[in-house]
């Protein structure tokens, strides 16, 4: 097959410097630098790192830059007292939805996706609120943006009942409507329900629906530093019962960081067995799940942006390298091997979380590449700069 694009002098993460040949949207060769074929477009990496694209396993895409509409009340509740008021913050944040329309949400959603492409984020699991306060407005806006960016960034849309399904009667039916409109993943937030029985019912509802529709399931679980929460474990057991092995994601799962070692080990063994992936967002809260212990146990783990200037986090520019840089400090991961792991958490390991089997820089893999100026992993994270060139399916998107 003729070469459609060649990235020259590409430094792979294993230290090799090679030319990356692309044709038909795939990587056809990783070869020693040689004379360039005539007439073939060339991207000069000049010895800079070349990686696969970044993967964001958790972003509330419909909420980006909505903080000015609501003020700081929900943000203060979410961040105060070690996140003890997390549930109260969600109730406060729902007030902003009175201002929502597809037309008002779309510009900020487009900007977040554009920023993501600029920073090399080409795969995204996007949560869109579906509840009696938002109706279907959030998911409609995200679905519209998904179509606009098709071919640039893959957006997997989660129909997300932010206020619960038992606490918010009618939201379960709205989730089904959202799935019929084109959402990809059944969402859930069981920990917010009132009591263990309702939490378990929430998990059962979501997993049963995902099994019936043949989709994946993604939930926000245990988003508080309270070891009494166990909805992540409930999700793992329900995935097993409903035939969803390898088709579930738990985001946050912060309470696991407060389990004792034996209980953590028991949960992680269960998560590995049923193929439950985990997404940590350590920058948006004061507690995080035990990322390195989960990886050591064979569980797929990724990092997510989570929020961009909304009721729960005032920053964010959809840069997963920035998230990884923050995680280096918050998770105490600063040795050279740990820095490599951090890059995995926003590339290959994050892809495993979302079930992306066609991901990775390899011969036969997709010609989706990021060309960075940094030559070392430590510089890649320390500078967390946007890649100089973004290539999708062998076509230069940026650079």
Compact overview of the structure:
The chain has 2 domains: 5-52 and 360-398, Roll (Urease, subunit C, domain 1); 54-353, Metal-dependent hydrolases (TIM Barrel), CATH 3.20.20. It is of the alpha/beta class and 399 residues long. The protein has an 8-stranded parallel sheet with strand order 6-7-8-9-10-11-12-13.
Characterize the structure shown.
The chain has an eight-stranded parallel beta sheet. A four-stranded mixed beta sheet has the order 3-2-1-4, with no helix packed on it. The chain has a four-stranded antiparallel beta sheet with strand order 5-14-15-16, with no helix packed on it. The radius of gyration is 21 Å and the shape is globular. It has 14 helices and 16 strands. Helices cover 36% and strands 21% of the residues. Helix 5 links the parallel strand 7 (121-129) and strand 8 (154-160). With 399 residues, it is of the alpha/beta class. The chain folds into two domains: 5-52 and 360-398, Roll (Urease, subunit C, domain 1); 54-353, Metal-dependent hydrolases (TIM Barrel, Alpha-Beta Barrel). The model has no long low-confidence stretch (mean pLDDT 94).
């Amino acid at each position: 097959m003729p070469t459609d694009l060649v990235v020259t002098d590409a430094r792979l993460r294993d230290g090799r410097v090679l030319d990356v040949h692309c044709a038909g949207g795939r990587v056809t060769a990783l070869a020693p630098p040689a004379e360039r074929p005539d007439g073939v477009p060339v991207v000069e990496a000049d010895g800079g790192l070349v990686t696969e694209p970044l993967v964001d396993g958790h972003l509330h895409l419909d909420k980006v830059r909505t903080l000015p509409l609501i003020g700081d009340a929900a943000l203060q509740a979410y961040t105060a007292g070690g996140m003890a008021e997390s549930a109260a913050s969600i109730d406060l944040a729902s007030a902003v939805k009175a201002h929502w329309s597809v037309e008002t949400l779309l510009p900020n959603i487009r900007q977040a996706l554009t920023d993501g492409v600029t920073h090399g984020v080409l795969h995204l699991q996007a949560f869109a609120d579906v509840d009696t306060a938002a109706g279907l407005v959030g998911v409609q806006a995200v679905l519209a943006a998904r179509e606009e960016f098709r071919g640039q960034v893959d957006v997997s849309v989660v129909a997300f009942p932010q206020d619960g399904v038992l606490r918010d009667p009618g939201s379960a039916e709205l989730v089904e409507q959202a799935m019929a409109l084109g959402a990809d993943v059944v969402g859930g937030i069981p920990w917010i329900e009132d009591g263990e029985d309702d939490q378990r019912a929430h998990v059962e509802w979501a997993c049963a629906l995902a099994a019936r529709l043949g989709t994946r399931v993604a939930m926000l679980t245990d988003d508080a530093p309270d070891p009494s929460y166990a909805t992540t474990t409930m999700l793992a057991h329900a995935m097993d019962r409903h035939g969803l092995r390898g088709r579930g994601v738990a985001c946050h799962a912060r309470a696991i960081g407060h389990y004792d070692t034996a209980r953590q080990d028991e949960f992680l063994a269960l998560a590995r067995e049923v193929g439950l992936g985990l997404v940590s967002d350590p920058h948006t809260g004061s507690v995080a799940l035990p990322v390195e212990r989960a990886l050591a146990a064979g569980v797929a783990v990724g990092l997510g942006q989570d929020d961009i200037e909304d009721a729960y986090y005032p920053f964010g520019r959809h840069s997963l390298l920035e998230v990884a840089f923050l995680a280096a400090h918050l998770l105490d991961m600063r040795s050279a091997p740990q820095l490599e792991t951090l890059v995995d958490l926003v590339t290959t390991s994050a892809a495993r979380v979302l079930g992306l089997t066609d991901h990775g820089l390899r011969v036969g893999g997709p010609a989706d590449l990021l060309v960075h100026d940094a030559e070392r992993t430590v510089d890649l994270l320390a500078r967390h700069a946007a890649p100089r060139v973004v290539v999708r399916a062998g076509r230069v998107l940026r650079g």
